[in-house]
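Reading is simple: the token line describes the chain's fold. The lines below illustrate.

. . .
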Amino acid sequence: MDASQKRSALMCAHASGSADLSCLVAGIRLASPLVLASGIWGTSPSLLERAARSGAGAVTAKTCTPAARRGHRNPTAIDWGYGLINAMGLPNPGAEEEVALLREAARRLAALGVPLIASISADTAEGFAEAAAIVARAQPAAIEVNISCPNVRSEHGEMFASSAEAAAEVTARVRDATSLPCIVKLAPNVPDIAAIARAVVDAGADAITAINTMPGMLVDAESGAPVLANGTGGISGPALKPIALRCVHEIAAAVDVPIIGTGGVLTGVDAVEMVSAGATCVGIGSAVFYRGEQAFSLIREELACWLSAHGFGGLDDIRGRTHRTPPAGAVSTLPPFPTWEARGGR
């Protein structure tokens, strides 16, 4: 490490103690705005504890379903150069089997002051309610309702996140099944994500996770076959960030509940952008693949350093800036008409 790097490290170390990185999500106070995204480190209590010790402000367990799921055959996850693509298929032993793991994880995390968020999915609205009631016995701080996995479908052949009506129905069923805070995870590949956000909030959602992965596909040029065994998968990592920022921006304009902005956040500057779009806190997933378990501490320090260097005291000072700041480089006058338009299109 040269002299300039040492000075930078010292500045960031000082900044990390001065900027207020705390936030409130569904009534839950987080000391750090970085939330381990679902599915990254499973539901193993030791791994979830490791995430908390590495700097996560909250930890989301892997999604579980009412009955056990095998998931998809390999290959299921690949780094394609611009991000990751996966089609795991929600493998899990079932909600009943998860309770003991979630309970132990919650106990370990409570000792560290880090809340546990359980995650559920199902094929029917009734299944979501069943899974919620089961995992609630583990007493997590909140339940994330995953209505948006791109690699599984409801009995009707589409995600519940695809329509406002279906999303609201699931949310209402979960709301009736548990008194725990309900965080609904939305999909990016919908015509009007703001309308779906309004529907789930009206149905009782306490917060929103935005977004899940974006459906995509890789093809092997030599054979012409899909690379993933499932054919398609969900895109995450850097390629997802512009889509996630747009979704968070639109949701923040539509509803007044906390948003866990998730998608392509690898650095502190990425986190700044996500909060500026309206996120309350930031989901961390692919960053663990790219930067290792120290991703949480690195992103937290980079975020605090950026805030301090720009004269901001905390996240509240930058949250939602995209809703009140003109686009960078925008000019006050419109460009001239092209010549053919000036002639009336002739």
